[in-house]
Amino acid sequence: MEKRRLGNTNIQITRVGFGAWAIGGSGWEFGWGKQDDKDSVSAIRRALELGVNWIDTAAVYGLGHSEEVVAKAIAEWNDQKPSIFTKCGLQWDSEGKPFRVLTGDSIRKECEQSLKRLKTDTIDLYQIHWPPQENDDEICEAWEMMTRLKDEGKVKWIGVCNFNVKQMKMAETVSPVYSLQPPYSLIRRRIEEDILPYAKEREMGVIVYSPMQCGLLTGKMTRERINNLPDDDFRKNNSEFREPKLTRNLLIAEKEKEIAAKRKRHPGEIAIAWTLKHPAVTAAIVGARNPKQVEEITNAADIILDEDEIIELEKL
Question: CA-based, 20 to 30 A from 208: which of 161, 189, 218, 315?
Fold first, then answer.
């Protein structure tokens, strides 16, 4: 698989990486419903067999469970170990509801906990999951600790997720931001205006998440399936899965299916390929819950959409 350097780091990553959000399972506010750990482990190993060389997870996914499953999946992997990316800055209450904490002490504690769950001495990329809820002044304290963890060797590189340009500039007063992880899909294009141009100007690595918009752009989602999502699947009440947005989103998915059928590819690959065409995007995080899903979408990076296909998708 094609690899690209992640910004100004020394990490060469495949253009598609394994996203471990859904494999965290249920029991927390943004869970995807019940998940079989055996399926999760098999999915990760299948991705590695197909050439994927990095996994993105987070402490909050499944309230620590996703990191544990990732560790289990790679423990017996005999080939070159994948790079592991995880995140900090979200803790949770007794009901599994996340809340943001960006104090230095909290970030250090989270890092130590993630190292234990991942059963590793060093995290390849450590990211602040979300910026502060209200006071951006907390960014500098948080980024100072992230920089310290890098200097100590507990993490190799540091990045941010969901930051805007102003917030990235604040972090950069302390030390460089090596990577950015924003949401990006045919449905969510807001970052094209200023965030992606800024990242490209700064030669920052960009790994986009939810290129298939949490399953909406896989070609498999229908109104009936959405209505039958379990109550512990956060998508059931997500605005993109409800009107007035749903009709438009399903139209985009249908157009993807048409293009995919002509190319004899999977609709989800079209959605991923569309995000990868942007010159600022290094790679895309692609979630999968079993080996079959991995096989359907892992090779999306080799699709080059032509101008007519892009116009057809974007006009919706």
Answer: 315
Evaluate if residue 316 carries a pLDDT over 90. Answer: no
d(CA 179, CA 163): 11
pTM metric for this prediction: 0.96
Whether the per-residue pLDDT at 96 is higher than 90: the answer is no
CA dihedral (198, 201, 202, 203) in degrees, to 10, reads 120
Q: What is the mean pLDDT of the chain?
A: 96
* Short-list 238, 126, 245, CA closest to 181: 126
Active site residue ranges: 61
